[in-house]
Amino acid sequence: MVKICCIGAGYVGGPTMAVIALKCPDIEVVVVDISSPRIAGWNSDRLPIYEPGLDDVVKQCRGRNLSFSTEVHRHVGDADIVFVSVNTPTKTCGLGAGKAADLTYWESAARMIADVSVSDKIVVEKSTVPVKTAEAIEKILAHNGRGFSYQILSNPEFLAEGTAIRDLLSPDRVLVGGRRDTAAGSAAVDLLAGVYARWVPQDRIITTNLWSAELSKLAANAFLAQRISSVNAVSALCEATGADIAEVAHSVGKDARIGSRFLSASVGFGGSCFQKDILNLVYICECYGLPEVASYWREVIRINDYQKSRFVNRVVSSMFNTVAGKKVAVLGFAFKKDTGDTRETPAIDVCKGLLGDKAVVSIYDPQVAGEQVARDLAMNKFDWDHPRHLQPLEQLSATDLEKQVAVAADAYEAAKDAHAVCILTEWDEFRGLDYRRMFQGMQKPAFVFDGRNVVEVAKLREIGFVVYSIGKPLDDWLKDMPAVA
């Protein structure tokens, strides 16, 4: 029986291993992590991450052929296939700071695998890594492997948070890259592809060389982020001209060559991958002497940053050029609906912008706890991808946060006595709120700034709100006001 061990019990490792265990009941699967609280969460009735359908899959397999453990060395040593799903944060100092991937945790994992192995192994890159990382890992294992043989594979994940289980059960494609020019490398690729073939149709399993697989993940995320930045750039033009971004995007998306997905204008993209991977791609291009290509991809990030700052500017300028001392309700803190993940969420930058202008912010999100909100607002950029105990916080004191930030139990509490409501996550429940009730409890004039285009603008204006919705024709109140505070 094949034994699989995954190092890293996060958003990728946990769900991926749970589905493998579900679909391959004869394979023993164990997920290991040095974080005792995280492993305890996976072994409890309240999993450490929220993902629709994940609870059911874990409960079906846990105790049968799926387990979660902090005994990292023992399980890695016993495994035939070791997936490595550790953090690859953006470097915050040194060469490539602000762009390059920090492979400290990957190198540590490779050295640990070499130290504890008692047999040959297939080592699978599951984290998103720079091109040629596999070559570095091969060298570490070759020089420290004590005579054992290792095959390195790249098996990038293409999961969308909120639909991760569905994506794992019925993926668009599974990509396995390896050294197919050698017999051992080809056998390793076939073995891992065979695991996925237990439930994935053969025509959706793609095998490539190592470098193509590593680059494909970065390229896929860059292309998706590029589409979001493109539609967000057009949304700014729509507001300036009176066009409606929803109508423009619908028309553009009907072109079969373009398609309709990822053409929803918003306050900006977030999540653990897009910005980090594009910055990594920029750095790689610079390293290979491709400054024009690097500059092209850097603009995707710049437009995303511009969209967030543009939103904050619109809020402040619309409210008489100041939000100092005014209560602003923020509905949604996760970077997208159906997840509790706040990594690189646009809400952080929007809230910091409002707090910088001395607003009093009341936040409601159905899946994000107050402790996480406070931590995110006090954290340095790029530090979220390090282990919790290595996340240094900014000088925004707990007292300052308590004075300016509150976490509400529901949307109505958040909006009570507020001057404005900012919608920053497209949770379905925000579409069905009783906005008339909300309006009655707010200061007047009452503003709604919809960063996700979830509200029916005409209905809210009938109630009495001044409404700003990304890429939509401007409210009469806003037409003569500057877009920048």
TrEMBL record:
It catalyses: UDP-alpha-D-glucose + 2 NAD(+) + H2O = UDP-alpha-D-glucuronate + 2 NADH + 3 H(+). GO terms for molecular function: UDP-glucose 6-dehydrogenase activity. Keywords: NAD, Oxidoreductase. The keyword Oxidoreductase applies. Residues 329-457 form the UDP-glucose/GDP-mannose dehydrogenase C-terminal domain. Its EC number is 1.1.1.22. The active site is at C273. GO terms for biological process: UDP-glucuronate biosynthetic process. It holds the Pfam family UDPG_MGDP_dh_N. It is an enzyme of class 1 (oxidoreductase). NAD(+) binds at residues 8-13, 33, 38, 86-90, 127-128, 161, 273-276, 343. InterPro entries: 6-PGluconate_DH-like_C_sf (IPR008927), NAD(P)-bd_dom_sf (IPR036291), UDP-Glc/GDP-Man (IPR017476), UDP-Glc/GDP-Man_DH_C (IPR014027), UDP-Glc/GDP-Man_DH_C_sf (IPR036220), UDP-Glc/GDP-Man_DH_dimer (IPR014026), UDP-Glc/GDP-Man_DH_N (IPR001732), UDPglc_DH_euk (IPR028356). Pathway: Nucleotide-sugar biosynthesis; UDP-alpha-D-glucuronate biosynthesis; UDP-alpha-D-glucuronate from UDP-alpha-D-glucose: step 1/1. Belongs to the UDP-glucose/GDP-mannose dehydrogenase family. NCBIfam families: NDP-sugDHase. Involved in the biosynthesis of UDP-glucuronic acid (UDP-GlcA), providing nucleotide sugars for cell-wall polymers. This is UDP-glucose 6-dehydrogenase. The lineage of its organism: Eukaryota, Viridiplantae, Streptophyta, Embryophyta, Tracheophyta.
